[in-house]
Amino acid sequence: MKISQEDVILIENLYLSKRYGARRLLSELPDKGWKLGSIDSQLKRSHKTGTVVPQPGSGRPRLSRTSERPCAQSGGQAKKASVSSLAFP
Length: 89
Description:
Layout: H1 5-18, H2 22-28, H3 36-49, H4 83-87
Helix pairs in contact: 1-3, 2-3
């Protein structure tokens, strides 16, 4: 079961105030239906970043898609440069 944002705040609050670990949280709140691994990974993530707020995505930005293709501007064919035209202008 996925842990909701309210549950993440609850986990972090119980860890900071009462020093509950993942196993103690499972025994104290059995009706939540959490898995040990999901609580453990959430605690590791909060220890690493120092916050319960999810970090923004990083890495390569998504492509912006337009209705026109780049090849459509050159008449539908992409022109290739030959080796001889590059070597001897």
